[in-house]
Write a structure and sequence with these properties.
Largest sheet: 11 strands, mixed
Number of helices: 15
Strand content: 25-35%
Radius of gyration: 28 Å
Helix content: 10-25%
Shape: globular
């Protein structure tokens, strides 16, 4: 049993959380279920409820009240048994603080004067308190203006980092609920928190960044609620009785890095006997609309892996160069012991240039951490309020030997559950897929970012729009992206314009003021639909439906009666490899062709969403609109000869993948697309828009062999070129590193950027062979299409219903496939040369040589 899209039910923000369960193995399809809710010691059951629903089932009882804790169990009746199953193990859901009136806390922070235009030394805040009895339970509800890391009695609370994450703070600030029962003791206690600037008031954005985007205060908002064994409660909330002092962090910034002076640190500062360095003074209380505090809908950012350096090279008397063998996002943890005042500097970069860290691509993200040793013995340290994108690091200021066991790279990202795996017989393709996974990890840091290393790291709407099908296969990102889409809706302009990136920050002169742009704005229609299809969440589709309508209505007005969106600022096929380094939008494809194609595609998907939601009038209206736009597209952009006005791979890929051509036009368009690919020796010729579509466009028009040639090309530009050049993540540009080993001269050159890795969705569906044909994979099609010399593949995905998998191998007589269908699902296998075979839940072994009925 699970609740909403959360890894556990503690502190949930929904008063009526939806329930999801998986069926017993071998039980067949569900016919009915019964849910038991135990609240305040009383168990209530729904009785037998007929139906197959088992994913995101409506809460069957009275809504939760704030802090209420309910134990939930389920049992089911299936087609293979007249008796019910046993009860599931108990799962507990506990509501957070659901109403503003539940909060007693106010924001508190340092009261000393600060220069708001300069870097400011972070504060720590704390409060001593006395508990008069034995503790039965305790919850800490906590958030901040800025970032925080809490301690109670010297013990850290939780393990998340960069909390509370980045949302549109004026409207939504996340708080998290922690069970801190084990942190407390009868008698004297102390709670404290480190504070950091983060996105709230730190320097962030382009061209040197902007400070104080959301405010100038750095404040903790915390409410500790303690329940004694006799049932009475004590509340310790942030208020004017707390104290503040400067901490041992001297400077901290998401781009800049962090400086820590261990001489100023008392490890017991948040204990009843600790003092810390500096004088503790009363805090300043600040203001917050407590109605804007919301519980999370997804997991936090955490350390998910530790990587040791594969090579440590001394490059000077006090310099060492470290290679971790993998481009990653995270921080270094060092363990050092030296004289007081020894200053050790840690610098980071993704690649090397002439044997040194290549820092030019970082622009003004200095990615430098500094540790000043205390001289009090060995110290293990890592920064708290910053992250870097790097494979290489330089440690300077350390004259002794530096060994691999003294430095560890700790990998951080939103701690989503891994749900998708793929591998095949081609090791280069496997490395490509692994690079996609690593780029997703590095760029899903609370929001879906474009790059994790330079002075940007923004939630670009177009990037996730094209990558969402891949992302939703690899990880359970529904809760995280649902939260981010909520912010997209909040940032949507009154006229319906979707910003280029969300949350919105200053971006003059190119990105501010905001203009509506195709492919980027279409995140409003396409990404909710993708998430609905992958996770079976109709309510998610409903929540974002009005945003999608406002977007399509805006574009309809811009296009006017011609139904052609041929005006305004458009990025076109961004980063087409033919575009010059200083003008990524200057590709081969008419940018208004791209805009009109997306107009039709969004209108079509809005109609699909309306139909799924029962909005029949809207479904009819937007379906007709999509037809009109497609007709206008053909009149303007398709020549009588059947070719397109932009004779480019992206133009054909858009027209084919978006269904904009008439049946007689499709095959000539597919043939011309294949010709263009072959003429360019199967080197990639698409940017952000064309890249996710081109392999499908070739496959669906009978050119699977050309799609494989494109996939397996190793010359620049191509997917596997980056692999042969040693890439361990997806690059922003096809030639971020040029064949001669030099860096692309463009000012926008990242080596960790997931957009061009959207081809992994084709790997999962076409090479691997798994396609969701019903929301949440309730219906599945297995259709592997081997080619390119790839002789085997294994693909697995954890759906809301359970594991779906296929492992296929070519043999001397055909193809064999081991297939797993989740309980409660139905599937069709379409193996090469064979008629479709219907499959039920369970494991199946199919052999094309033995299937009785073959296609003539």
């Amino acid at each position: 049993m699970s609740f909403e899209h959360l890894p556990d039910g503690l502190g949930i923000g929904a008063s009526a959380p939806r329930l999801t369960w998986t069926l017993p193995k071998g039980g067949g399809s569900q016919e009915a279920y019964e849910v038991e809710l135990t609240r305040a010691g009383r168990a209530d059951r729904t009785g037998r409820v007929a139906g197959r629903d088992q994913v995101l089932v409506a809460w069957p009882g009275a809504p939760l009240t704030s802090r209420e804790r309910v134990t939930v169990r389920v049992r089911v009746w299936t087609t293979d048994s007249d008796a019910p199953s046993g009860w599931s193990g108990p799962s507990v859901v506990e509501a957070g603080l659901l109403h503003a009136a539940d909060w007693h806390a106010v924001p508190v922070g340092a009261a000393w004067d600060e220069d708001p235009e300069a870097g400011r030394r972070p504060a720590r805040v704390r409060k001593g308190f006395h508990l008069d009895g034995r503790v039965a339970g305790a919850r800490l509800y906590i958030t901040a203006h800025g970032l925080y890391e809490a301690e109670i009695n010297g013990r850290r609370v939780g393990d998340e980092t960069l909390a509370p994450g980045w949302t549109v703070y004026p409207h939504r600030l996340r708080y998290r609920t922690h069970d801190v029962t084990g942190h407390l003791t009868e008698g004297a206690n102390t709670i404290g928190a480190w504070l950091g600037d983060g996105w709230y008031r730190g320097k962030y954005g382009f061209d040197g960044g902007t400070r104080n985007i959301y405010g100038t205060d750095q404040s903790l908002i915390a409410q500790l609620e303690v329940t004694y064994e006799d049932g009475t409660m004590a509340i310790v909330a942030t208020d004017g009785t707390w104290s503040a002092a400067p901490g041992p962090i001297l400077t901290s910034g998401l781009y800049e890095g962090e400086t820590f002076d261990a001489r100023l640190h008392d490890p017991g500062w948040a204990t009843p006997t600790g003092q810390g360095a500096g004088e503790w003074t009363p805090v300043r209380t600040n203001s917050r609309d407590l109605g804007t505090l919301v519980a999370p809908t997804g997991p936090p950012v955490r350390c998910t892996e530790e990587i040791a350096p594969v090579e440590v090279t001394r490059t000077g008397d006090d310099r060492h160069l470290l290679d971790f063998g993998q481009n990653l996002v995270g921080r270094l943890r060092v363990t050092l012991d030296g004289p007081a005042g020894t200053t050790v500097t840690l610098r980071h970069a993704e690649v090397l240039e002439e044997g040194e860290l290549a820092t030019r691509p970082l622009r003004e993200a200095y990615a430098t951490d500094t540790l000043i040793l205390s001289g009090r013995g060995p110290l293990s340290w890592e920064p708290r309020f910053t992250l870097h994108g790097f494979r290489y690091a330089e440690v300077s200021g350390w004259t002794a030997d530096l060994t691999a066991d003294m430095v560890t790279a700790r990998v951080y990202h939103t701690d989503m559950r891994r749900t998708g795996w793929f591998e095949c017989s081609d090791p280069l393709v496997n490395r490509l897929h692994e690079n996609v996974v690593w780029s997703m990890r590095g760029n899903f840091v609370d929001i879906p970012t474009d790059c994790p290393q330079r002075d940007e790291r923004l939630g670009w709407t177009g990037d996730i729009q094209i990558f969402a099908p891949t992302a939703s296969f690899l990880y359970d990102c529904a809760g995280m992206l649902d939260s981010w889409l909520t912010d997209v809706g909040l940032e949507q302009l009154p006229d319906g314009t979707i910003p280029w990136y969300v949350p919105v920050i200053p971006g003059e002169p190119m990105w501010t003021p905001i203009h509506p742009g195709a492919a980027w704005g279409d995140v409003a229609t396409l990404t909710p639909w993708t998430l609905h299809q992958r996770f079976g969440d109709l309510d998610l589709l409903r929540r974002h439906y009005s945003m999608a309508k406002r977007w399509v209505n805006l574009v309809e007005g811009l296009a006017g009666s011609t139904r052609l969106w041929d005006t305004g600022v458009q990025l076109g096929d961004w980063l087409d490899p033919a575009a010059p380094p200083d003008d990524p939008a200057a590709g081969r494809t008419d940018r208004y062709l791209v805009a009109t194609a997306y107009f039709a595609h969004s209108a079509r998907h809005l109609a699909l969403s309306a139909a799924a939601l029962g909005e029949d009038e809207d479904a009819e209206r937007y379906s007709a609109l999509a037809d009109e736009v497609a007709d206008a597209f053909r009149r303007r952009y398709v020549l009588p000869s059947g070719r397109m006005t932009s004779d480019s791979p992206t133009a054909y890929a858009l027209a084919l993948a978006f269904g904009l051509l008439t049946p007689p036009q499709r095959q000539p368009a597919g043939d011309r697309l294949a010709e263009l690919v072959v003429e360019d020796d199967a080197r990639i010729a698409t940017g952000f828009v064309g890249t996710p579509l081109i392999c499908d466009a070739l496959t669906d028009t009978g050119h699977l062999d050309i799609a494989y040639r494109l996939l397996l090309q190793t010359e620049c530009p191509s997917w596997l070129y980056t692999v042969t050049m040693g890439a361990t993540t997806i690059w922003e540009r096809w030639d971020s590193l040029r064949p001669d080993g030099t860096l692309n001269p463009g000012g926008m050159t990242s080596f960790n950027h997931y957009a061009l890795g959207a081809v992994a969705d084709w790997l999962h569906r076409v090479v691997g062979g798994i396609t969701a044909t019903g929301p949440g994979y309730r219906k599945i099609t297995f259709r592997p299409r081997p080619g390119g010399g790839i002789t085997s593949a294994r693909t697995r995905h954890e759906t809301p219903y359970g594991t779906v998998a296929i492992s296929w191998e070519q043999t001397a007589t055909g193809l064999t496939a081991d297939i797993v269908v989740p309980e409660g699902c139905e599937a069709t296998a379409e193996l090469p040369g064979c008629t479709p075979v219907a499959l039920g839940p369970g494991e199946h072994v199919l052999d094309t040589a033995r299937l009785a009925i073959k296609v003539a």
